Amino acid sequence: MLTDAHCHPADLVRVFPQAEQERRRLGVTAAASACDMEEFAHNEELSRNAAADGAPPLLPCFAIHPQLPAVKAANAGLFTETELNNSLETLHTLASAGRIAAVGEFGFDLYNAAFRETEALQDRIFAAHLEAALRFKLPVVLHVRRAMHKIFAAIKTLSKCRAIIFHSWPGTFEEGQSLLRRGVNAYFSFGNTVALNHKQAQKSCALFPAQRLLTETDAPFQPLRGKNFSQWADLPSIIEAAANLRREAETAVTAKELESQIETNFRVAFKYE
Q: Thinking of the domain 3-269, which architecture would CATH place it in?
């Protein structure tokens, strides 16, 4: 079964109205992130409909995206203390009711000056989300750009979490190995980057233990060259690319074997049965 460790169905459907039909046709089980209740309600409705129809599940997740404070500031707004508290209250309400499969995506984004200006707020949001994940024994989905040093600074807390899913793994192979050695139950998710000549992603995908790999689309935000958006139909080519990389690195496995292993990893990481 195909699995997607990170996607945005509410955004995907705006550019690809047939998205949910495609997911069902391909048999994709997916973890869907949201950062506000409108997005979450969309994902939860898809989840209920899939359950009622016997379709592959869609697992709703919730968190404050690390880019959100900077994006609001760029639109002449502020991510106020009230909004922060309301979002955290929503996270706790959803988690306590068992309505989310993971806390995510959250993390750090220090990609540019605008994002770096909100670093202190990102620190607060990150700590609050980890606290919630530990309290409710949920896995986390992390977004990290140019901020691996922040991850290593939090390693003591991260090692207590039930699972850490790194969306579009941003680090090096050596950094990933270090996290595992230090007791972090890390899973490394790869999308179209493995087909786009991203050398560090390709090396990591080739060399990490197969039991630590996940696949994702980040739909619609991680398109292949020449495409306007990523979608669930990209998953077979992502798996094929990953299998080819591992074959070249002498960690050989067929695409079908890798797909099966990744499904097992997904079930374990998200505690999905």
A: Alpha-Beta Barrel (3.20)
Q: What is the mean pLDDT of residues 174-189?
A: 98
* Three-state DSSP class for residue 136: helix
Per-residue tokens: 47: 């989840």
Q: Which of 126, 188, 119 has the alpha carbon at shortest distance from 158?
A: 126
Cα–Cα distance measured from residue 209 to residue 181, given in angstroms and rounded to the nearest whole number: 13
Relative to beta strand 164-166, strand 186-190 is: parallel
Strand, helix or coil for residue 182: coil
Closest CA to 210 of 262, 247, 256, 166: 262
d(CA 154, CA 93): 25
Q: Is the pTM of this model over 0.90?
A: yes
Q: What is the pLDDT of residues 72-126, one digit of tens each?
A: 877 767 778 888 999 999 999 999 999 999 999 999 999 999 999 999 999 999 9
pLDDT in tens, 243-267: 999 987 766 678 999 999 999 999 9
- Pairing outcome for strands 164-166 and 213-215: unpaired
The Cα 17–Cα 23 span in angstroms is 12
